[in-house]
Amino acid sequence: MQWLRMASILLLWASGCRLAMASDAGNGWMFADLERTGWPDALSSQTGIDTASRAEVLMFGRALLASEALDEAGLEQRLGVPHVQLKSIRQVRDGLWDRLLSTYRNASVDCDGQPFCPRVRSVAELRQLAAAFTGDISPAHALWASKSQGVHEQVLNEQLRVAVLRP
């Protein structure tokens, strides 16, 4: 399970870096800035990895919830596509929520007393937790949360765009 949690964090981070670099090609400070404003705590222990995993899941959940509030026209504008297929979008969103729940549960084993640790039993509970999540437990975490939200929105937009273009 440890490798799965670490892989999830690395995948989210790598996707964010790739998108940041692709969206601002030729501007080296963007990548450097992303490096300096990443997760503020060390990832040198299982507890640290699990805490970061839970926070990333909740932040991605916030981005996913925000996308669900958009109607068809709003999605078309946000994704830059002429037409969206809502069925494909719903399927991708449902799959993302299932994976987020699985990742959050795996990272929540024995986390009593750790940050971002409320237990969840269902996607509905995870959605509620993500809606209320701010990540603001310290100034460093608040900075991470503000930067992370943009990265997760970009990653989500790419996933939804693929759902529209290749249903």
Automatic annotation (TrEMBL):
PROSITE patterns: PROKAR_LIPOPROTEIN (PS51257). Residues 1-22 form the signal peptide. The keyword Signal applies. Keywords: Signal. This is Polysaccharide deacetylase.
